[in-house]
Write a structure and sequence with these properties.
Blueprint lengths: L6 E5 L4 H12 L3 E6 L12 E6 L6 H11 L4 E4 L14 H29 L3 E6 L12 H21 L4 E8 L5 H5 L13 H12 L10 E4 L4
Parallel strand pairs: 1-2, 1-4, 2-3, 4-5, 5-6, 6-7
Helix pairs in contact: 1-6, 2-3, 3-4
Length: about 230
């Protein structure tokens, strides 16, 4: 019950990874706030509770600010929202690049900024955890726009870890490789060894540790969650 009586925001909380994070947080007694834009949230059983707030576009500055103000003082904010696409550089348009940057870097920036305000309002320090991606560290052919956007998330994480350390607000990121989700399985040949991929449950557990009171000293980390992939 590391999160009992603690309020936590989870962006992307209706996606595969985000839903796993929400479920674990509720099991540990958290009050979880999830901004929703499109996919509906499902009830989660446990000693904690979930508040889904619909109609929140995380690339809209005013919408993000209003959501965090509604959530109020926080202990932590975990940012799993984002997008993915790939194409050779010669076939990547300005709109393609902008979409990746907005989906990943801009949403993380806006949510981090508003989370800082609400964590400060609580007055006890707190935690912010972002999600970057392995291609941001180890380039992959055809993923330039995606990799750049996720590298920006990593840079944001490292910058904020320094800026906020004196306030006991630890900022970290996890760095997944491809995760074992139904959508990802459907994108690969059936002969692929999916056991090599990290499960969303295991990645979620790492996120929870970084966001918890058990994390007493780790900040500015980019934690690989690759499994064997």
């Amino acid at each position: 019950m590391r999160f009992q009586n603690r309020k936590v925001v989870v962006t992307g909380g209706t996606g595969a990874l985000g839903a796993a994070v929400v479920e674990l947080l509720v099991q540990e007694g958290a009050e979880v706030w999830v901004p929703v834009h499109g996919r509906k949230g499902a009830p989660v059983a446990g000693p904690g509770k979930v508040e889904f707030v619909e109609g929140v576009d995380l690339s809209d500055e005013a919408a993000v600010s209003a959501f965090y103000q509604k959530a109020g003082p926080l202990w932590a904010s975990i940012h799993t929202a984002g997008g993915f696409s790939m194409s050779p550089i010669a076939e990547t348009s300005k709109a393609d690049f902008q979409k990746m940057f907005d989906s990943n870097a801009l949403t993380a920036f806006l949510c981090c900024r508003e989370a800082v305000k609400q964590i400060r309002a609580a007055g006890i320090g707190g935690r912010i955890v972002n999600v970057t991606a392995k291609p941001a560290l180890h380039p992959v052919e055809g993923m330039t726009a995606y990799s750049v956007s996720k590298a920006a998330v990593l840079s944001l994480t490292l910058s904020l870890a320094e800026e906020l350390s004196r306030e006991s607000i630890w900022v970290n990121a996890v760095v997944p490789s491809i995760m074992d989700t139904p959508q990802n399985r459907a994108s690969f040949p059936s002969k692929t060894d999916f056991s090599q991929w990290p499960s969303v449950a295991d990645v979620a557990a790492t996120l929870l540790f970084l966001a918890s009171v058990d994390n007493r000293v780790t900040r500015g980390a980019a934690v690989p969650v690759y499994g064997k992939s």
